[in-house]
Amino acid sequence: MTPRQARIVLCSFLLLAAGVVINALYFQSKPASIASRAIVERTPARVEPERARKTSDPPQSTRSKAPSSEERPARVGRLKPDAAVVDVAPAAPEGEADPQTIRAVQREIKQRGYGPLVADGVMRLAARAAIMAYEHDQKLPLTGEASEALLKRILLGASAAAADLQGVSKAQSRHAESIIRSVQQWLAALGYQPGRADGRMGEDTVRALREFEMDKGLVPKGRISAEIVVRLTEALQPPKTASGR
Question: Are residues 202 and 126 in the same domain?
Fold first, then answer.
């Protein structure tokens, strides 16, 4: 091959290679770029619904958590009364007066000879028994409770005729029933046969009280009093021996 022919072949080869490169760069890249742009344009369309779903999910989670946040104050509200009860002192029983009135009743009852009471505003067994003795003498229902009405009656000296005779010697409070029941049990333990310990002042209980009073050198009145309670508790104590002195 002559040098001229070789140059012609080389130029032809270079032109062919250039044509292939131009075709690959300009004519074949446009469809690919169009397809890639289409894919890119379609991809946000998928991402946006997912993004919308993600943004819409938090309200659902907040809605699901909302009842639990509402339940927590309710549980605290149920616990508050329980906590308050622990801190506050117990309220006085129903029908009981304030400490000032109780002290006044104790003082007036003591001055009228119903027992050596301490006017401290605290309702002990002896104070309730003394009030029951006063109520018995005044033909009143037995309550063993200090109240404004009782203090008014003591101070004004209301006559027995104004009392409700149907309720005489009948316990009308849980305090009176408890004291009567205790006295009945004590009398039974000492052998006085007061009948069943039912918290009622029946004939057997009155008779047993009279017998006990006579044995102790007291005027037989057949009623519960502070002195009776003291004498019964003393009688139930075991006798002291020489070694125990």
Answer: yes
Residues 183 and 116 reside in one and the same domain: yes
Flag whether 72 is in a domain: no
Whole-number pLDDT of residue 95:
57
* pLDDT on residue 143: 95
Residue 191 belongs to some domain of the structure = yes
Q: Which residues pair with 171 in a beta bridge?
A: 142
Which position has the token pair 């849980």? 174
What single string gives the DSSP state of each residue in 116-171?
----SS---HHHHHHHHHHHHHTT--B-----HHHHHHHHHT--GGGS-GGGTT-B
The residue among 179, 100, 106, 192 whose CA lies nearest residue 142 is 179
Residues 6+ apart with CB under 8 A from 193: 187, 204, 208
38 in the same domain as 103:
no
**pLDDT tens-place string over residues 174-189:** 999 999 999 999 999 9
Answer whether residue 218 is part of any domain: yes
**Which residues, including other chains, have CB under 8 Å from residue 175's CB and lie 6 or more apart?**
93, 123, 128, 143, 144, 145
Predicted TM-score (pTM) of this structure: 0.58
Per the structure, the complete domain to which residue 135 belongs is given by: 99-236
Total of domains in the chain? 2
Asked whether 208 and 194 are in contact (CB, 8 A), the reply is yes
pLDDT at 67 over 80: no
Same structural domain, 44 and 109: no
94 vs 215, more confident = 215
Give a yes or no: residue 136 inside a domain: yes
- Residue with the bigger pLDDT between 171 and 129: it is 129
The whole-angstrom distance between residue 50's C-alpha and the CA centroid of its chain comes to 52
